[in-house]
Amino acid sequence: MHFYKEKILSSGQLKRLSEHKYSCTNASLLDAYLQPWWEWLVSKVPLWLAPNLITVVGLIINIATTLILVYYSPDAKAEAPRWACFLCALGLFIYQSLDSIDGKQARRTGTSSPLGELFDHGCDSVSTVFVALSACIAVQLGYYPTWMFFQCFCAMTLFYCAHWQSYVSGSLKFGKIDVTEAQFTIMGIHLISAIFGPEVWRTEMPYINGLQFKYLIGGMTAVCALTSLYSMFSVIFTGGVGKNGSTVAGTSVLSPIIPFSLVVVPAFIIYRKSAENVYETHPALYILAFGMVAAKVTNRLVVAHMTKNEMEYLDTALIGPCMLFLNQYFNFFIKEYYVLWLCFIWVTFDFFRYCSQVCLEICDHLKIMLFRIPYSTDNLSEKNGTSRTQRQRPSKKHH
């Protein structure tokens, strides 16, 4: 079943994607300590369970636990139940664990493919939005709307820039303090809110008058973000692996800044220009709406990298933000809250339509199934020249 009249990926893109080899360097501090847990966990997973199914189950749990938190505090001001914060911590831990073993399961079953890498990054792009939002709700950042905006879009920006530098250098790079460390920090935030209540973040730190504990989160975010951005832009400005220092697609190393700017800049302008204070009143819905646009653009960047293709600047997901902008321009012909819901519905539909279509096209080209392993794992591993002993060797996180 195809959702578009024409295919998204050309035959040339599909050919280059099938030749794509995953490349990454990982210096994460926590990953080395978590490897035994991941190795034990994947050993308990049935061999018939498809890697992509593991990833999507983790994502569904992550989204569900976050939506429970959003239900109780849609404005990020109301104090959510402590058990909801605990559920968020548990949901994120489950997602983090399952996301870390999907690649191991793929190699264990001899079903590694470029689709697995793309699917993994696609799920991560969505999870980033929900995880950042849940952390803001856990510390009631709705009282500080600009700060909450910064926290959420900072997470989306860092994720996008990680794949931007990958588009330039051809290799994904994880620093000493990266995704895993951020995820466990947010788990800690949820657990603290679950044990002591969200009000604990308003407690003033000893010996420092007027400085609340929640400001530590903002400080940590700023320092870690600046450090990560410095590292990523050092790679970007050094030049790419393409001709004359260009990207893997032979395009300008700065070109990816335009599509993402078309997400962040309108998001901030619409927030500041809203006479009905649509963002301050409904921050969770606003972040989710623009977060899905950011996720769509990030996925297009990942596809551009894996297919060695130029990334187009405009996207159909931008129709959503345009609805809000035009409604403001024409003096709020429709109540902004309703337009925001319309925007969210459109961008979510557009995101899943795009991802589904791309996955189906890749499945057709590679003759594989998205959520099923069609052959016996022993036969498949022999076909790929992989023995059972080889399949059980430690491996990196992704496919």
Automatic annotation (TrEMBL):
It is a multi-pass membrane protein. One of its GO terms (cellular component) is Golgi apparatus. It catalyses: 1,2-dioctanoyl-sn-glycerol + CDP-choline = 1,2-dioctanoyl-sn-glycero-3-phosphocholine + CMP + H(+); CDP-choline + a 1,2-diacyl-sn-glycerol = a 1,2-diacyl-sn-glycero-3-phosphocholine + CMP + H(+); 1-hexadecanoyl-2-(9Z-octadecenoyl)-sn-glycerol + CDP-choline = 1-hexadecanoyl-2-(9Z-octadecenoyl)-sn-glycero-3-phosphocholine + CMP + H(+); 1-hexadecanoyl-2-(4Z,7Z,10Z,13Z,16Z,19Z-docosahexaenoyl)-sn-glycerol + CDP-choline = 1-hexadecanoyl-2-(4Z,7Z,10Z,13Z,16Z,19Z-docosahexaenoyl)-sn-glycero-3-phosphocholine + CMP + H(+). One of its GO terms (biological process) is phosphatidylethanolamine biosynthetic process. Its EC number is 2.7.8.2. InterPro entries: CDP-OH_P_trans, CDP-OH_PTrfase_TM_dom, CDP_ALCOHOL_P_TRANSF_CS, CHOPT. This is diacylglycerol cholinephosphotransferase.
